[in-house]
Amino acid sequence: MSEVKAYAAPKESADLKPLDIKRRAVTKDDVEIDIEYCGVCHSDIHTVQNDWGGSQYPVVPGHEIIGRVTSVGENVTNYKKGDLVGVGCMVDSCQTCDSCKEDLEQYCENGNTMTYNGEDKHLGGHTFGGYSEKIVVDTKFVLRIPENIDPKGAAPLLCAGITTWSPLAHWGVKKGDKVGVIGLGGLGHMGIKFAHALGAHTVMITTSPSKSEDAKKLGADEVLISKDDKEMEKHANSFDFLLNTVPVGHDTNPYIQLLKRDATMVLVGAIEPLDPIHGGGLVLKRKKVAGSLIGGIKETQEMLDFCGEHNITSDVEMIDMQDINKAFDRVKSSDVKYRFVIDMKSLKESK
Amino acid sequence: MSEVKAYAAPKESADLKPLDIKRRAVTKDDVEIDIEYCGVCHSDIHTVQNDWGGSQYPVVPGHEIIGRVTSVGENVTNYKKGDLVGVGCMVDSCQTCDSCKEDLEQYCENGNTMTYNGEDKHLGGHTFGGYSEKIVVDTKFVLRIPENIDPKGAAPLLCAGITTWSPLAHWGVKKGDKVGVIGLGGLGHMGIKFAHALGAHTVMITTSPSKSEDAKKLGADEVLISKDDKEMEKHANSFDFLLNTVPVGHDTNPYIQLLKRDATMVLVGAIEPLDPIHGGGLVLKRKKVAGSLIGGIKETQEMLDFCGEHNITSDVEMIDMQDINKAFDRVKSSDVKYRFVIDMKSLKESK
């Protein structure tokens, strides 16, 4: 067991502060990682604020972790000291249920262990995330980061990336499909990059005309302003797939109108009640609304390999650990393009 | 052109009354049918009351039509005089769009012609349904009724039957699947019969414990009372498929909880706004909510053939044409097991 520096919210609604936490000693299946970068996800804020209930304090957030291996257990053959690796939203799962057997640990039927605020089965208490110097993780939950991509921009791939990749892959988005990405934030900007790289005709759907230029730079072929009824009407019944990244409850009916017969809109952002959906909008053309949660470890590695091949990373703004509370405020007001990443050197070198 | 007896609502909210209507002369692709039975569908009432807007008066309802062929056009080779046939919700479609080419005329992209209150492309004005002595229909929209099943009970197969069959078939419900049918009315009782005949473990999901006995007689293996939170909890995340036949907006969240990962609930009844769906309920196990509308002609014939093989018909209460207004009132108060069917002899023999 070792003591490492971290940043934590000591209690609900409080600012994050320096805190020393314990990491377990490396067991035979573990990989010890020196954290270099950690992305800032809106879930970090929700957990700190206890928005979803069940938060345990102190909360050490962070599940977009990039670092270098410093040590491995005796059973670990796929990683060695010095390897560039990542850790996402999960650090363990039962490995025995149907979901785990199908490489869908995010849907583990016995409850997986989240990277922070999960039950720590080694030390007791709850797990601590990546806003810290080091982490020790079972090798099955460690991802390999392609050495050719910028590791800073790779951090958000571990959550924002896989959250948008998984539905595009699961629903089989392919070259020539007309794909809409609703909402341009941390998730949406990754959705555009992926849909574009998969060869889809990619349409950014946003309420804000001001986002058009950025959307096109990110890879959107078209921008559809959802407040423009005439434009929305023109695109009615034309989309093969919609990726809805809006992070709050909203009226999804105008988007459902955009779907082709038999097409699906997948929610990845709104983990709260949606405005009433009109049954007729689904019935009349056999349309579908679904949800999707992050992604399994196997598909996360596939996504990372795809990013290596296509040189895809997240657009990030680097911050020091000490600036985290300011960054949280800016995330809350959507004032970031498109993801904050903490340079963990700032934590390590602090007194 | 011929003049035939019918029953019609002369204007919104008025009772149905006798009326003479015109039927076109048999063209080369047409089949003329002497109507023997016509089912009473809740849509008939919605159209008479103009609940969905766009009703044109007089409304002659009826799209669950059973009769015998009296005459066929020169191009018609698949039917001959005396054949037992049916007509459902559609009498024409464009035949050229992708949906029509895929045998999904119900989703015709250029707008199909509904059996009543559609645009009559032959005579002008709007189409008249099955509450009448005769109908003339393009042979492509005429169905063959197996001679071994009771033609009275076959009438509702043309709408209630195909509406529940189509999603079960499209989503591939099979032997051993755990299938829930929500709501026990005209649609629900067909859903149970079909799911049971397909070999699924069929669960009737209802708010009314009083419906348990009937549900089991219809083929349900189990009855789940949706108001019983403990029972609902026991069945959480266990259903492969849910067929939701509830005809009005309602809270679907408790049903979504019942779905397994990746499973779908299909709406076939509620063509109106649902209570707010919680995004988290979909996201956490990649669940899906979809809609489905009646069915194509090809799959309607498949359903009828299946009914012939398994001796499946609807449970019906026979009425005379003159009792239609009383029957409407009873449908509105769900006082029918499970579908009214009009014996058209009563119309023909009336003065």
TrEMBL record, chains A, B:
Chain ranges of the Enoyl reductase (ER) domain: 13-342
Keyword Magnesium: no
Any Pfam family matching the protein: ADH_N
UniProtKB keywords: Metal-binding, Oxidoreductase, Zinc
Keyword Oxidoreductase among record annotations: yes
InterPro entries: ADH-like_C (IPR013149), ADH-like_N (IPR013154), ADH_Zn_CS (IPR002328), CAD-like (IPR047109), D-isomer_DH_CS1 (IPR029752), ER (IPR020843), GroES-like_sf (IPR011032), NAD(P)-bd_dom_sf (IPR036291)
Cofactor: Zn(2+)
An example Gene Ontology molecular-function term: alcohol dehydrogenase (NADP+) activity
SMART domains found in the cross-reference section: PKS_ER (SM00829)
Record family assignment: Belongs to the zinc-containing alcohol dehydrogenase family.
Protein's name according to its UniProt entry: Hydroxyacid dehydrogenase
Organism: Cochleicola gelatinilyticus
